[in-house]
Amino acid sequence: MNPWESQVDLSMGxxxxxxxxxxxxxxxxxxxxxxxxxxxxxxxxxxGIVLPLMDQARLWLxxxxxxxxxxxxxxxxxxxxxxxxxDIRTGRCSYGFFYNENSCCSGLDAGEECNEWNxxxxxxxxxxxxxxxxxxxxxxxxxxIAYSGSAAILVQSYAPYAFHTGxxxxxxxxxxxxxxxxxxxxxxxxxxxxxALAVGSGLSLGKEGxxxxxxxxxxxxxxxxxxxxKGNQAQKRRIxxxxxxxxxxxxxxxxxxxxxxxxxxxxxxxxxxVMWRAFVCAVLAAVTLQWTDVFATGNLVLFRxxxxxxxxxxxxxxxxxxxxxxxxxxxLLIRLNITAAVHRHHSxxxxxxxxxxxxxxxxxxxxxxxxxxxxAQSSNLVGNLFAECDPTKPDYHGLCxxxxxxxxxxxxxxxxxxxxGLTAWTFGMKVPAGIFLPTIAIGATMGRAMGIIMQGWHRxxxxxxxxxxxxxxxxxxxxxxxxxxxxxxMLGGVTRMTISLVVIxxxxxxxxSHVLPIMIAVMVxxxxxxxxxxxxxxxxxIALHGYxxxxxxxxxxxxxxxxxxxxxxxEYIVTINAHHSTVEGLEHxxxxxxxxxxxxxxxxxxxxxxxxxxxxxxxxxxxxxYPNGATPSDMNCTFVGPHDSSYEEADLSSxxxxxxxxxxxxxxxxxxxxxxxxxxxxxxxxTNKGHLRGMMTKRDVVNLxxxxxxNAHALAERPETIFTTxx
Length: 727
Hints:
Blueprint: E1 8-12, E2 15-18, H1 26-41, H2 47-87, E3 91-93, H3 101-104, E4 117-119, H4 120-123, H5 129-158, H6 167-174, H7 185-200, H8 208-225, H9 233-252, H10 255-264, H11 272-292, H12 316-345, H13 353-368, H14 372-375, H15 378-386, H16 405-426, H17 436-460, H18 479-495, H19 499-509, H20 515-530, H21 537-545, E5 568-569, E6 576-577, E7 581-582, H22 583-592, E8 597-602, E9 605-611, H23 612-623, E10 636-638, E11 649-651, E12 662-663, H24 669-679, E13 683-688, E14 691-697, H25 698-705
Parallel strand pairs: 6-8, 10-11, 12-13
Antiparallel strand pairs: 1-2, 3-4, 5-14, 7-10, 8-9, 13-14
């Protein structure tokens, strides 16, 4: 689809609607909203008070009661489904097939062995070690392939937009891009079911990012059911922004982190009341999640770490090493992931998505099964890596066994490397996939390995000068928190988030006393990652698809360039003559050019600007004035009012914008970019004493900011048409 092609439908009684692939006109949408609000408030008597209140009540109904609560329930039961699908790959509960291992073994005292959960070999009464290993690995691999294959079939057959994480598309939509199919009921259903299947298969992916997509689908569906909002794209995006924050709140049990995620990563909340709605929606979703409490934990913290464990100044050095690793590994993961995506798009793999999913799942399962840390579900792995050793609890795969320290270190590093490679390829296949949890797992394994090394060093040399601040008795090094630092650093390197990431990690672990080390880790990893490119994983995918997303946080430097060096010059601009344009000529102009608007000129003198849809509407209204609906093709059209009564002509001046946004050609290019970032116009015309000299569009500015990204538009359907200069 050519984004310069007009995607506007005027069939709704003159009210502007958009088709997929368009970008909304923020100025018009805001104007419609202001008119609507004024109309309600200007009603006489009690109606002028009640109607605005009812209007706001419907908004809060959609944002809070429906979206917040429903997203909380969806997140809770997705957790249950993912846990069950993952657990039955290794065994089943003896007294109920639909119990996962946690539910099957509930009610046991600490350290008590669970006899109710049986491996498949135990369930079938197999005693042979060889047959047991063969059966367990066979079921483990076959169920994984069945899960992921089913997810791929659902996506390919019913909802192609349900694949991947969805956050890049959500960012583009909130920035004004129109992609209604991405938020359809079918997409919601396939995304939810496919996400559970894909995560349960053991692929190196997570469900946290896709929950943002799920929550926005929920909000969009109910938005479309409430007639008051329908058609207002600006209001819709405010609702979606609140829903996106609720999705993060449910994914991590982090309501405040969800709001900050929307502020930092989704580039939202230019208005305070939008942030307030997002906060209330996120809190309501988190409260619903905790009230549901499907795993009977009694709290919202997903991976609680040992609170109150002191940290020493000398630990900042290994934490800095982990931070540098997070930045380097994060940049490497982004580079590998983008390379894999481009290769997939331009190779035979693109035509065989199901085969790719099945093969990668089989490879992942066969690689993971022999390694205990890779065989476990990522959520269980991360939870145990964050936890400190406790003699009253079972030892997680010998992680706390001092005699196997070097074996554990080797396995942890091996797991980290394998997961990095698998995640780089898996994140982009045609299944629902998030990248948060795999990234956390990669960093946590490296962090735990570093913690075990430091702990072993302290045990071997407790009197060394570096450990002089440690108490002579008791534990000095807590490897679990090293895993937290590694996870935060890796997330920072991949997403390039800062404040929101610190808050999410704090709410995720409850580690209030360790916020400062987490802040340092995130800060250093971002600095290191930025050396290799400032785009996080989501911005990289936006650029890959060529979505018209204009970030307001990018700091552009023009190297002394002016607008004249980048604008489309006057001789290449398709214009309309203000005095002498026939109906036939205008219709031919619309047929032969797909630009979304045209400057109207008198010679070189700028008269105004008319959008494509308004020009189409004006011509259509002329047809209604004739009995047979056929406007004379040679009728003259004027955009400055009728000037000669001797012959019939059509006055189209009411459709003209007589004061479009204008700048001088000599203005610094940096100022032009900043103007687009702050005002978000569709285009800017460059004039000199009223004479048209050139123009730039929002898409041209987006293209300008992406010049340093070598793979921009690599996944676009028709890359050559994505950024054609025009209006």
